[in-house]
Every structure is written in structure tokens, then in C-alpha cells.
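user: can you give me the structure for this one chain? C-alpha cells are fine.
assistant: on it. calling the predictor now.
[tool input]
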Amino acid sequence: MAKLGKRTRAAREAIAGKENLSVEEAVSLVKGNATSKFDETIEIALNLGVDTRHADQMVRGVVGLPNGTGKAMRVAVFARGPKADEAKEAGADIVGAEDLMETIQGGTIEFDRCIATPDMMPIVGRLGKVLGPRNLMPNPKVGTVTMDVKAAVEAAKGGEVQFKAEKGGVVHAGVGKASFDEAKLVENVRAFISAVAKAKPSGAKGTYMKKIALSSTMGPGVTLDVAAASGE
């Protein structure tokens, strides 16, 4: 068995025996153990009681974190004409149509969010097998297929986070950086949990939120008191 480094061992010792914490306690503990040389991302993972193989149990949504993510979001927009100009003016990093499709088909994906005007979807639809598995496919349910590209680009740049339940019913996302004030991280965590709670699908049976864990990029995770964190 590989030996643990001093930092890893100290971090694990700090959380030993601590579980089902309040949001405030979890944030304080995770932030305090984020001691890497870079600004670690604070990550949340929710284990949900859903079976994503059934359409009526899929969990998907979007939330604007009150204090942003701390990450520079790269945005690509499929648009033509005035809407393409609107996207550029709003700060989109990449704007195109068939040319952008060909770039993506060639294996170059240099963006974190993809937005499209409705008339571009026949083109974007060809990229389903590429963008879908990466959760980058534009979708009207989360506001990324829209004529209001200005608002969509500004929301993405301003700290909006998309979420989608993966196989096994797990939803995860970055909710800030270790350099954030604890109070701001607490606000972001609560906002994200609230958004997932509101996205509860009609087909969900039994316990919806089964487990919530918080961690930093390089640190161990701690569990939250689900009832207290979700307000259930």
C-alpha cells in the first residue's frame, strides 16, 4: 500500500470522525484543508435516489451561484448574422456555424459552455455524440438554446452552473474556490442544493437526496446533514 504524504495524512486526520455536518461546518473544514499551492475548487456531490435510465427520473437544471464559481468560463456560440455579432459583443470566446461544427468534429473543444440559436440546432444536432457525453449539448431546458444569446453568454460568464445527474444518480459541480470567504461559499452551496431540490423529477420515488458531500480538488470529502442542508 502506498504511503500517504504528510499533507494528505494531516487532512484525513482533520476530518476523521466528522460527518453529517452543517453547511457552515463542512465549508470551514474543507476550506481549512485546501492547502495546495494552487487555488483549489470547492466541489459538491449529491447522491440522489433516481434512476437516470428513466426519462421521468432525469435531473437537469441550471443555477446562478450568488458569488460565482471563481472559474473563467469559456463560451462558444452557434449563431449567424446579427446574433453572432451580439454573442461577440457579450463576450463569447468562440462564435461560428458550420466552421465551428467542423472544428469540434476535428476534436478541438476549447470551451466550457455551448450556446446556440434555435435555427442552428440542425447543425449542432450532428455533434450530439461529441457534445452530449461532455454535458455541452445546447438545451432549451437550461437556457442554452435561445435567441437571447446576450443574456445566455452573460449568465455563463457570471457564474451560472449547469447540472445533470450522471449514471448512478450523482450530481456534482464546482461551487467556488478555496480563496472565497466562508460566508460566500456557504451561500453558493445552499443555492446549489436548493436548485437540485427544486429539480426533483416527477418519477422520483422514496428518498430524493440520499447523501451530500463537500471536498476540495486535492482534499478529502466530508458529508453534510442532508435534512439541514436541503431544508427537508
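assistant: here you go. Residues 182-198 form the longest helix (17 residues). The first strand starts at residue 41 and ends at 48.
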